[in-house]
Amino acid sequence: MQTTVLQIPIDEELRAEADSLFSDLGLDTPTAMRIFLKQAVYHNGFPFEVRRNQPNAETLAAMEETDEIIRKIKSGEITPMYHDVAELMADLESEDDDADDEI
User: Fold this and answer.
1) Among positive and negative, which fits the CA dihedral 68, 73, 74, 77?
2) Of the candidates 6, 10, 60, which has an alpha carbon nearest to the alpha carbon of residue 33?
3) Cβ atoms within 10 A of the Cβ of 72, count?
4) Which of 36, 27, 26 is nearest to 6 (CA)?
5) Which residues contact 6 (CB under 8 A, 6 or more apart)?
6) HEC per residue, the chain
7) φ/ψ of residue 48, rounded to 5
8) Structural domain boundaries in the chain
């Protein structure tokens, strides 16, 4: 079978990580790439699932909550805003004192 050369520009760090991984598996990177290409042809597509990361329900809820908080901050509905950590901590400590008074 006649062969051809396939050159793929990749990040140096990715190449080093891949070389190390394939070496641990007893392969060199060109052999691993040939295995990938053969499997892609065999499967008539990628030999693994390719998809965008989809946030789960908890992450989506947190993102929506963050958007709502930002909206409220911008509209002035949420106060106070803190200028530094010391100011935040003082307010939190006063809330703790208020909570103790309610018990």
Assistant:
1) positive
2) 6
3) 12
4) 36
5) 33
6) CCCCCCCCCCCHHHHHHHHHHHHHCCCCHHHHHHHHHHHHHHHCCCCCCCCCCCCCHHHHHHHHHHHHHHHHHHHCCCCCCCCCHHHHHHHHHHHHHHHHHHC
7) -155, 165
8) 1-50, 57-102
Query: Under 8 Å CB-to-CB from 73, ≥6 apart: which residues?
Result: 81
Please tell me what DSSP assigns to residue 44: T
Read off the amino acid at residue 28: D
Nearest to 29 by CA among 8, 43, 49: 8
pLDDT digit string (tens) for 20-69?
Answer: 999 999 999 999 999 999 999 999 999 998 887 888 999 999 999 989 98
Whether pTM > 0.85 for this model: the answer is no
Q: Closest Cα to residue 46, out of 32, 54, 35, 36?
A: 36
